């Protein structure tokens, strides 16, 4: 039987030895003083390993030098593979990234514990007068059939592949990380456009979706599409009309999107909710609280997509619905709460006649296509 000599206590032993990273043979009795490195699997003395709290593992000094770094925000030592470089050049750990957001205005990343969840403190103070009730500001293009003169803002949630360079969309809006969007080997992100109308809206959607698709970006069920429509010129009576019309026809709006959105807590139905509650509640299919900050109503219910035509069809339907609803005193038949799965077919033509009879055919055709695709309603 072959005997080994322990490199720690010099005792002879015949059991299977433990071989350290330096090639020494260790007996079973002494092996309790040795542990494998989490990164390289090399065996080291316990005293030569450091406990890394961010991963709750023991790591050797060489692997720390090669594979670990300190977070610029929290000073925690963490694996380099989990780090993200912020637009300002800071290197931050995955924990800080998950608890951060990118300022909608300047693009700098901000820790959630430091301030807010949309703009950094400096930008909110500087731009408070820009996003004021009654005026969005933005790029106005020549009115088209799909997009008249009313300004819209588009927010596209998507998945950006890890290791791929950032998509440059600065001419059209801002990109921020989005913790509610997740997938394998990617970062959740959201593009928020500048307010646009007419030909500028169509050009923006063409450029943005082309660049995101070319960069290998994608969407899944965690992603959504949000449309802001400027209602700053509507009177309080007209805004209340729009809300009431939305409540009565809400099932059709959910009927134009993927079924998964009907059980999504970021776009709850508002049918049955009182208006006072809605003014302080953001995560609704129609977010009317956006009026207080942006002078808009925000449609949050659409599923994630990078298809230009799909985004365009839904955004244009939203614009034409609001323009029609502001002038109509009596809403269509109340078809109920979307979570109760009402049968929409008997009321589909009423929905189109009430809100889109004056819209160009391209708008009503787009609505019919979406109802046919997602609710199997043929008109």
Describe, in short, the structure shown.
The protein is of the alpha+beta class and 379 residues long.
Description:
By secondary structure, the chain is an alpha+beta fold. The protein has 3 domains: 4-65, no CATH class; 77-127, no CATH class; 139-375, no CATH class. It is 29% helix and 22% strand. It contains 10 helices and 22 strands. It has helices spanning 61-67, 94-98, 121-127, 198-214, 236-254, 275-278, 290-294, 308-325, 345-356, 361-375; strands at residues 4-5, 12-13, 18-19, 25-26, 34-36, 43-45, 49-52, 57-60, 68-70, 77-79, 84-85, 91-92, 100-102, 109-111, 139-140, 152-161, 173-177, 186-193, 196-197, 224-230, 286-287, 296-303. The strands form 9 sheets. Strands 17-18-16-20-22-21 form a 6-stranded antiparallel beta sheet. The chain has a two-stranded antiparallel sheet with strand order 1-2. α8 packs across α10. The chain is elongated. The chain starts with a strand and ends with a helix. Mean pLDDT is 87; it is low at 125-136.
Key features of this structure:
6-stranded antiparallel sheet; alpha+beta; 379 residues; single chain; 29% helix; 22% strand; 3 domains
- Count of helical regions: 10
How big a fraction of the residues is strand?
15-25%
Shape: elongated
How many DSSP E strands? Answer: 22
Mean pLDDT: 87
Could you tell me the radius of gyration in angstroms?
28 Å
Spatially, the strands of the biggest sheet line up as: 17-18-16-20-22-21
- The helix-and-strand class reads alpha+beta
Whole-number count of domains: 3
Low-confidence parts, pLDDT < 50 over ≥5 residues? Answer: 125-136
Main β-sheet: number of strands, strand sense, barrel status?
6 strands, antiparallel
Helix share bin: 25-40%
The N- to C-terminal Cα distance equals 87 Å
């Amino acid at each position: 039987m072959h005997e080994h000599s322990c490199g720690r206590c010099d005792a002879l032993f015949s059991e299977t030895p433990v071989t350290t990273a330096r090639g020494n043979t260790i007996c079973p009795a002494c092996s309790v003083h040795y542990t494998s490195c989490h990164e390289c699997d090399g065996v080291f003395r316990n005293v030569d390993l450091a406990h890394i709290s961010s991963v709750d593992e023991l790591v050797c000094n060489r692997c720390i030098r090669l594979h670990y770094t300190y977070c610029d925000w929290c000073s925690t030592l963490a694996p380099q593979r989990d780090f993200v470089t912020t637009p300002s050049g800071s290197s931050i750990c995955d924990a800080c990234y998950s608890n951060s957001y990118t300022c909608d205005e300047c693009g700098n990343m901000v820790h959630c514990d430091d301030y807010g969840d949309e703009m950094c403190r400096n930008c909110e103070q500087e731009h408070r007068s820009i996003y004021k009730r009654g005026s969005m500001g933005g790029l106005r293009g020549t009115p088209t059939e799909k997009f008249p003169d009313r300004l819209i803002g588009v927010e596209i949630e998507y998945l950006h592949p890890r290791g791929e360079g950032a998509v440059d969309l600065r001419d059209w809006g801002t990109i921020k990380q989005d913790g509610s969007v997740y997938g394998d080997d990617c970062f959740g992100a959201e593009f928020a456009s500048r307010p646009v109308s007419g030909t500028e809206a169509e050009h923006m959607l063409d450029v943005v979706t082309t660049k995101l698709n070319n960069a290998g970006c994608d969407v899944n069920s965690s992603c959504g599409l949000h449309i802001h429509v400027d209602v700053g010129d509507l009177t309080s009576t007209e805004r209340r009309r729009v809300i009431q019309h939305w409540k009565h026809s809400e099932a059709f709006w959910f009927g134009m999107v993927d079924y998964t959105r009907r059980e999504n807590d970021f776009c709850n139905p508002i049918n049955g909710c009182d208006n006072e509650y809605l003014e302080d509640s953001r995560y609704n299919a129609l977010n009317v609280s956006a009026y207080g900050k942006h002078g808009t109503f925000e449609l949050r219910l659409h599923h994630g997509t990078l298809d230009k035509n799909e985004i365009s069809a839904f955004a244009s339907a939203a614009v034409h619905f609001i323009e029609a609803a502001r002038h109509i005193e009596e809403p269509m038949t109340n078809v109920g709460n979307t979570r109760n799965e009402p049968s929409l077919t008997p009321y589909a033509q009423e929905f189109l006649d009430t809100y889109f009879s004056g819209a160009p055919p391209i708008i009503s055709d787009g609505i019919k296509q979406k109802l046919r695709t997602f609710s199997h309603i043929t008109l």
